[in-house]
Specification:
Strand order of the largest sheet: 1-2-4-3-5
Number of strands: 12
Strand content: 15-25%
CATH superfamily of the largest domain: NAD(P)-binding Rossmann-like Domain
CATH topology of the largest domain: Rossmann fold
Shape: globular
Length: 368
């Protein structure tokens, strides 16, 4: 069955584009899900095991994310099949070939995602004249470098803790995926007095109940070293991050890391979703049943796209951070309060919020 119709519903996707450029070593997929609110913005993910289904789910998350945040943009996403650690010259060739392939998709603006960064977006902009999350040297706001998504996560946690009547000072944090999102979330939360008790990357989990030095871990990762190279803390397997006793557990890596078969291992009060679609529907339902509060991905991790939209409109980094804080705090409060009032899952409340805004935007379009 055609991919568009296999995934289609009232909101999209508008189209799915399969890209194959053998001479450049490029195989990719772009999904433009919905443009009712405006030109789609969505990141470019690079990994060996991506799929059309993952790309669609990520694009839909961007549709919800942009609509919920009240941005004048729709949702889209791209995935490139490949190892993001490939040699730089090869990666540049692949990224530039990808840019050329999407050059005529004018209602989609790419940005960085897992496996790509500001430099990659600079290559895209050089090829087709549009991208967000650009290096500051070419007038962009390097959202991964400044930690826009992590800042937004911290803002969502602050509101959630306020509603729960908890204090961030001394709150224990575990981060699954100590990368571009996770490390900045840990940094901003540490500035508010929280304690990082565990972090993981592909090399394993590093844990210390008395607290890990966030700055030292960030410096280690910025040098390209794995967490296991840090001299302090207990070295555990990567999936041991699921078993860490903490107050705040942040998934900030791949989709579906929390599932029905492992959700029972989580021991936390709050799960702000730093990654896109990190928990399956069954896992979110189980957590809700246990009284664990989850903040859905497209609410909690919208900082990156809010920053990207501000950049696209010519705004400054300061304006971007002000917008991130205001929009994410407001939406986090709306979702939690609606979930509490009705007893529905936070994701259901978040989808309803985004859906209302999307339907309002759709009424202004000629072709609905």
């Amino acid at each position: 069955m055609d991919d568009v119709f296999r995934f289609s519903d009232e909101f999209g996707p508008a189209r799915i584009v399969h890209i194959h450029r053998p001479a450049a070593g490029l195989k990719a997929i772009a999904v433009i899900d919905n443009t009712a609110c405006g030109v789609a913005i969505g990141g470019v993910r690079m990994a060996p095991d991506v799929s059309v289904e993952e790309c669609f789910r990520l694009a839909r998350a961007m549709t919800w994310k942009n609509a919920a945040a009240g941005l004048p943009h729709g949702g889209g996403k791209s995935v490139i099949f490949g190892d993001p650690r490939m040699p730089s010259a090869q990666k540049e060739r692949v990224i530039r070939a990808f840019a050329g392939a999407i050059g005529d998709i004018h209602d989609y603006v790419p940005g960085p995602d897992m496996g790509t960064d500001e430099l990659c977006m600079g290559w895209v902009k050089d090829e087709i004249g549009r991208a967000v999350g650009l290096p500051d040297a070419v007038g962009g706001i390097p959202l991964d470098q400044v930690g826009a998504t992590g800042f937004g996560l911290a803002a969502s946690v602050g509101i959630a803790f306020d509603i729960l009547g908890l204090d961030l000072k001394g709150a224990r944090v575990a981060v699954q995926g100590f990368g571009a999102v996770g490390k900045h979330a840990a940094r901003f939360l540490a500035q508010q007095g929280s304690i990082l008790v565990a972090a993981s990357d592909t090399s394993g989990t590093l844990a210390d109940g008395s607290g890990l030095d966030v700055s030292a871990l960030i410096a280690l990762k910025d040098k390209g070293c794995p967490l296991r190279d840090h001299p302090n803390g207990r070295k555990l397997p990567a999936d041991a991050i699921l078993d860490i006793d903490c107050d705040i557990w942040i998934p900030a890596a791949r989709p579906d890391v929390v599932r029905a078969d492992n959700v029972h291992r989580l021991r936390a009060r709050l799960i702000p979703q730093g990654a896109n679609i990190p928990c399956t529907a069954d896992a979110e339902k189980a957590l809700h049943g246990r009284g664990v509060l989850t903040i859905p991905d497209f609410i909690a991790n919208a900082g990156g796209v809010i920053c990207a939209a501000t950049e696209f409109q010519g705004g400054s980094e300061r304006q971007a951070f002000d917008s991130i804080q205001q929009r994410i705090q407001t939406n986090t409060r709306i979702v939690i309060e609606e979930s509490r009032r009705t007893g529905c899952l936070p994701r259901a409340a978040a989808v309803a919020l985004a859906g209302r805004r999307l339907q309002e935007a759709t009424q202004t379009r000629r072709w609905r």
